[in-house]
Design a protein that fits this description.
alpha+beta; Butyryl-Coa Dehydrogenase, subunit A, domain 1; Butyryl-CoA Dehydrogenase, subunit A, domain 2; 4-stranded mixed beta sheet; 4-stranded antiparallel beta sheet; 10 helices; binds flavin-adenine dinucleotide
Length: about 375
């Protein structure tokens, strides 16, 4: 339970209605086929959900952080795969908002404002996951361009996106000091999409490899300065980790709602299974964990809304708790549905598979614990 303004509550109700009525059937279909669907983009365009963080002067909604996380939560409650699109779009916009100059704002935000433009965030490489500073993809300046060589993996919206916020190595610096951000546009010569992954969950969200073979990116697409990529990343993850936390919360809430209703309907031993204390205590524990996650996430959102940026450990705690909760609550939801929970005719097994991703993306939960412990012990 969090206190929302009238406008935030109205947006939440609108997105919930849209998700329940229009997204739910798509969620089942895209999980089954394992394919991204343009229907989701069209639906989100109708509701302006791909321009939540875009400044108003460029046709965006420029919502506060609380509203942004509420939208992700409500979408993930019904279709976690589709919430990846909104979360990734937000991650990219955050990186741009903290780094672009006026000319870039006009160019990139102007394009986003026209609609139907999807963004993707490319950081991970085959040999550089948690250890971001060890990435190998490199950009070297050549006149008015940078030439990028290397590859990225596990990239959400890879092959779907129009603009890729990409972090690579430049210069001779070591570790994170040599990271630099670029916007790589999909038509860039030398840039291509590699393997499309077949995944356990989030199956309606396309995840792919990206390949850079002498990819020529104009120097106007460099974000900030050479070597400034790590600062952009840190400023971004303060916000984006809460996005994945909100996604996890939505998955957990969806599973809890489904299991609660099911327990009231399912009759065994001549009574609804919700009358058994064994089930009641499971539901109560699920509720406690969901509400604790919600409190941490929206406390982080309220801090951001007040301009407080010193929230890395808070965001890490929210992400850890919410994603561990999503995994636990969805597993318990399957248990409450018994054999039916294990079958694909019911949504909770999909939610359980989707939940696993939230413990891995935006920094694994081990890395979140490294950050939390580091902030306690420094
Ligand atoms: C569905 C999905 C979508 C994704 N989308 C994107 C995307 O859009 N853009 C992007 O750039 N990346 C994306 N990723 C990649 C994701 O961010 C990485 O998978 C994640 O950061 C972990 O990196 P890794 O897979 O290389 O694991 P590794 O870093 O190799 O970790 C392996 C294991 O070792 C543990 N470990 C590593 N270091 C430590 C340590 N210091 N202490 C304790 N344990 C440690 C990890 O927690 C993990 O359990 C996505 C991944 C998934 C699954």
């Amino acid at each position: 339970m969090i206190l929302l303004t009238e406008e935030q509550e109205m947006i939440r109700q609108t997105v919930r209605k849209m998700a329940e009525e229009k997204l739910a059937p798509i969620a089942v279909r895209i999980d089954k086929t394992g394919e991204f669907s343009r229907d989701v983009v069209d639906l989100f365009e109708q509701y302006d959900l791909l321009r939540l963080k875009l400044p108003k002067e460029y046709g965006g909604l420029e919502t506060d952080h609380t509203t942004y996380y509420l939208v992700i939560e409500e979408i993930a409650r019904v279709c976690a795969s589709s919430s990846m699109l909104v979360a990734t779009q937000g991650s990219c916009l955050t990186s741009l908002l903290v780094s672009v100059d006026q000319a870039q704002a006009k160019r990139f935000f102007g394009r986003l404002g026209k609609g139907n433009v999807i963004m993707s965030w490319a950081l991970t490489e085959p040999s550089a996951g948690s250890d971001v500073g060890s990435m190998r993809t490199r950009a070297v300046q050549d006149g008015d361009h940078y030439i990028i060589n290397g590859s990225k993996c596990f990239i959400t919206a890879g092959g779907i996106a129009d603009m890729y916020t990409t972090f690579v190595r430049t210069g001779n610096g070591r570790g994170t000091k040599a990271l630099t951000g670029f916007v790589v546009e999909k038509e860039t010569p030398g840039f291509s999409v590699g393997k499309i992954e077949d995944k356990l969950g989030m199956r309606g969200s396309q995840t792919s490899e990206l390949i850079f073979e002498d990819a020529r990116v104009p120097k106007e697409n460099l974000l900030g300065q050479e070597g400034g990529g790590w600062d952009i990343l840190i400023e971004s993850i303060k916000e984006t980790r809460l996005g994945i936390a909100a996604q996890a919360l939505g998955i957990a809430q969806g599973a809890l709602d489904y299991a609660t209703n099911y327990a009231k309907q399912r009759i065994q031993f001549n009574r609804p299974i919700s009358e058994f204390q064994g089930i009641q205590f499971m539901l109560a524990d699920m509720k406690i964990q969901v509400e604790a996650s919600r409190a941490l996430i929206y406390q982080g959102a309220a801090m951001l809304d007040r301009g407080i940026r010193d929230i890395l450990p808070s965001a890490a705690m929210a992400k850890c708790l919410a994603s561990d909760t999503a995994m636990k609550v969805t597993t318990d939801a399957v248990q409450i549905l018994g054999g039916y929970g294990y079958m694909k005719d019911y949504p909770v097994e999909r939610m359980m598979r989707d939940a696993k991703s939230t413990q891995i993306t935006e920094g694994t939960n081990q890395i979140q614990r490294v950050i939390i412990a580091g902030s306690m012990l420094k």
